[in-house]
Amino acid sequence: MLILGIETCTPQTSVCLGTEHGLLASAALGRGNAHGEFLTPAIQFCLEQARVDVAAVSGVAVSLGPGLFTGMRVGIITAQALAHARRLPVVGMASLDLLAFGARHVRRLVCSVLDARRSELFWAFYRASPGGLQRVTEFRVGGAAKLAGEIEALADDVLAVGDGACANRSLLESTGAEVASNALAYPSAHALVELALPRFIREETQRAEDLRPTYIRKADARISWRNRGALLGGKPTGVPDAKQVS
Predict the structure, then answer these.
(1) What is the spatial distance between Cα 91 and Cα 79, in angstroms, rounded to a whole number?
(2) C-alpha dihedral over 217, 221, 223, 226, to 10 degrees?
(3) Most CB atoms closer than 10 Å: which of 54, 106, 168, 183?
(4) How far is Cα 63 from Cα 12, in angstroms, rounded to an integer?
């Protein structure tokens, strides 16, 4: 089963082709706002490197956020277009889960932290479980001081990963947490494919039109809803809860 993975929720965009037997090809670019111009050539590059045609792709996996507002939308729209054109199943996964997956062999509490811009962070906590990690909190958003206070209150051995953790290394380390290196700064399409493959095999997939970005900051949800209203030629009458907004 050949799966295409698309991760565009952070300044590092990545694409990967893989099967249940391992990675076939990948491409990544760490230039912040270049998601749109990089994505299509990167997919073509991976297909060429793997020496396969797009017709061989069995499914598309995409990161749903939380993350950069534009990046999330670019990735999801691209995944939807490919899935509709080829009639492929899709699987959407959370960016914070993908980031934490890189620390799955650690026997400590893992805190996955992404830069949310506007002096805020997105984060969630994970514990080791059979076969990987289990998320033990909801996704959260707030300032670095709020996260530091939460880590201190836990009184646990914490490893913080992600660009948000690296950017606030001194503050988080003052709580007793360890901050991982930049090697674990971003979620990857490789992790996405590895985590999504079992879902494709079990046929636990989604329809492309049901993919939704994960907005946990109400301001982003309002922007999305207003944009949607403008595209439909009308005005929004209300803003749904952030977790439910497309």
Answers:
(1) 10
(2) -160
(3) 168
(4) 12
Query: What pLDDT is attached to residue 190?
Result: 96
Kindly state the tokens that stand for 80: 């939807």
Would you say 205 and 12 are in contact if contact means Cβ atoms under 8 Å apart? no
Prediction pTM value: 0.86
Q: How many CB atoms lie within 10 A of CB 167?
A: 15
Please give the radius of gyration of the chain, using alpha carbons only, rounded to the nearest integer.
Answer: 18
* 210 has pLDDT over 70: yes
Look up the CATH superfamily of 3-95+187-244: ATPase, nucleotide binding domain (3.30.420.40)
Query: Alpha-carbon distance 186 to 28, whole Å?
Result: 11
What CATH architecture does domain 104-184 belong to? 2-Layer Sandwich (3.30)
Tokens of 15: 């694409």
At 182, list the tokens: 């930049």
